[in-house]
Each structure stands twice: as structure tokens, then as C-alpha cells.
Amino acid sequence: MDLSSSISTVRRHTSKIAPLASAPVLFLLLSSLASTAEAYDPLDPNGNITIKWDVMQWTPDGYVAVVTMFNFQQYRHIQAPGWMLGWTWAKKEVIWSMVGGQTTEQGDCSRFKGNIPHCCKKDPSVVDLLPGTPYNMQIANCCKGGVISSWVQDPANAASSFQISVGAAGTTNKTVRVPKNFTLKSPGPGYTCGAAKIVKPSRFVSQDGRRTTQALMTWNITCTYSQFLAQKTPTCCVSLSSFYNDTIVNCPTCSCGCQNNITQPGSCVEGDSPYLASAINGPGKSSFTPLVQCTSHMCPIRVHWHIKLNYKEYWRVKIAITNFNYRMNYTQWNLVIQHPNFDNLTQIFSFNYNSLTPYGGINDTAMLWGIKYYNDLLMQAGPYGNVQSELLFRKDPSTFTFQKGWAFPRRIYFNGDNCVMPPPDAYPRLPNNSPQLKGSLFLPVIILWATLTWLLIYVQ
């Protein structure tokens, strides 16, 4: 199956929007959008995960399908322990076998004699297979432990697939019933999936480009992400500093919740605690429950923006990302930063860079991520739990200024989640200008200095 042709087909189907029939329909649509406004991302307004279900062949009691998840989000990815896809069968379907994935439970298959299905649950949940799976159990884009890269960061790995053989189902386009109630976990909540919609069958082009085949039947499911649904509190915060001010603006207090060991014992651990090792390996170590270092902000991730140097035509920024989570390594991490001077970015050190243009031709948003095999893995809290880089910007004389917080970012995302920024009135301020001599006083001073110089020379 050609991934690029499949992606273009899915994009064509998902880009079709039915025209609104009347004003009441428009009102209802706007009302529904208002109730789900937290799911809209202004920096990635078209981002979603599209699930494509392609029926490839009929069987005596059902069909064989290939299910593919395409991550069309520019910077939000699904990290370990990976995705989990669920749905509810419309009739009494069963899963006879799977390739490239498996269900988490078999369910009650007692009504079957002889061959036992892979899964008999009414609402199965499917996960990806792990790397190293035998080749006879693999298909293309499978077996990555459920990890799906973001579209910009690694488009070649922005899809995940599995093959499923369905029984006790229809055997024609008119008798097959589309599953309902799709859910996608990544691995926790956050995604909301719409209803499956039957679309034009997918087309596949052979590697030599000389033959085109198509699915017997295709339906799409679109899932969108909401940070509000994913977690009750934010997951990251931002601190600021500059060379022209001694003030270091820390993350706001309780940025990621006000839990502490007094009200919630075991919610955090001191960095020098003798019980640190036992806390890391204690209860919850296998459930990816965060165990953060005790700080005023209580965030697993802190991003620090430091204005480092000021040249005649350039200025320099240092970015440091610190992991305070003792149980989490962040693989394929990324930052999204909104700043008006990214249009004049000259050089970046030790990070990858890609420009994002959510507002058409305005180039004020950038995506940064680590270099593979160098700093693409942000280690858990400790001496190696940080990565850093520097950015060199060219000054635009018509717009550049250090005043009023212009040199600080407007917004920062870490792994697709919006980080808590300090309040604007707390930003490091420029020092007051030194008093200058007015022109009316400056001339007498020069005359006096010249006179004294002449007298000294004359006396000698």
C-alpha cells in the first residue's frame, strides 16, 4: 500500500464540507462549536487523526479490512505506550484474526466450536504490536508499539496500520454495517472521534505506477484532540530571564496544580531525598503516573527562555527544557513557539527547525525538536534531564525593540500542550535610561574642557 497516495486520498475526503442550508443550521453549528471550543487549536486549526477503514476482500461470512490511522497534526504525536483504538460493532460481528495489531481482551467465545475467534467482544479495544514482531504477523506501518510521529516532525512515521478479518458480518456493500462509538486513547484521554462516514473507495497505485487497484468499501473516522479533556491541569510552564535584568521570572506558582506532600502525600519528591529511588520504583511505576520533583510550579516540564546577547545587527536567545518527571522519558519531544521575530531567524544550534504558518503568510510560529540520536530523547528528571539550544535572530530596524516584552515569546507548546506563561507585567524590564545632558548645557561643557586643555598646554 502506497502511503503517500493513501494520505492524499484521505485529505481529499476530509476536506469536503457540505454547504449550510439555512440560518438555523448555521446557528446550531456555531452553538456546537462554542461548546467544544477547547478542542480548537489556533496554531494547527486543521490538525486531526483520520482513521481509514478499507475493506479489501470478502470472506464467506464477512470481510478483510486494513485500518490505518493518519496523524495530520503538525506537532502533536502519540508517544509510548502508544494508541488504543476502540469501537462498538453494529451487529454481532467477531474478529477471526488480526495482523499488525491485537485486541486487549478476547471476550466470551463460548458459542463457537472448533475455530475460536481472536475476539468476540461487542466493544473490542485494539493496540499496536511491539517492534521485533515476527514478519508473518506484520503489515506496512505496524509494530511500532503504538507510537505515531507528528506530521511535520517525521511524516514517514505519521501513520499506523493493522489488518483485521471480520466474521458474522455482511458480505456485500449493502449488508455491511459500519461500527459505532469510536474511541482513541493516546494512551490516555484527549481525543474525541466522530461518526464513521462511508466515502469513495480508496485507490492504491503499484510501486511501478502501472496498475491501480481500489478498496471494495471505505469509511473514515476523524478524531480531534482537546487538552482540556486530556488532563485536568497543564503539563508544562515557561520561565523567563534576560541579560539586561537580574530578575529571573519563574513559572507561576501552582502552574500545574497546587498538590504538595502535606495535602497529598507522595505527590512529589525532593531532589535530594534519600527515598528517591524507592519512590521511583514504587507503586505506579508501570502506569506512567507522573512523579515530579517538588517545585513551586509542580510541572513535569519547564521551558526557560533567556535573552542572552545583544549585537549591533543580531540578538541571541538560549532555550532550555528541563524534565522534572522521574518516571518519564520524552521520546521525539518538540516545542512550538510563537514569536514575531521568527521571520528573521538566522541560525539555530543543536535543534531541528521548521516554520509553521497558521495565519497564511505570517511567519511567526516555529516548531523545534531534537536531532536524532543526539538530543531527541529528553531523559527523566536528574542530571541529564534537560536539553538546550540557542537561536540567533537578525534585527529589523523598523520593528525591533527590547521594550515591553517584545523579545519574549507569545505562546509555547511542549508536545502539543499549551504551556503556562508568566503574566506580562512580570516580564524582565529594561533598566531606566541614564540621564542625558541637554544640548543647551552640552556646548558650555565642551568650551570649558577645551579651555582647560589649552591652559595646561600653555603652562607647560
TrEMBL record:
For this protein, the parts annotated as crossing the membrane are 441-459
An example of a Gene Ontology cellular component annotation for this protein is: plasma membrane
InterPro entries attached here?
COB_C, COBRA_pln
- Look up the signal peptide feature and give its range: 1-39
**What protein is this chain from?**
COBRA-like protein
Give the GO biological process terms.
cellulose microfibril organization; plant-type cell wall cellulose biosynthetic process
Pfam families documented for this protein? COB_C, COBRA
Q: Which residues form the COBRA C-terminal domain?
A: 235-428
Record key words, sorted = Glycoprotein, Membrane, Signal, Transmembrane, Transmembrane helix
Q: Which organism is this protein's natural source?
A: Musa troglodytarum
Extract the PANTHER family matched here. COBRA-LIKE PROTEIN 1 (PTHR31673:SF63), PROTEIN COBRA (PTHR31673)
Q: Which family does it belong to?
A: Belongs to the COBRA family.
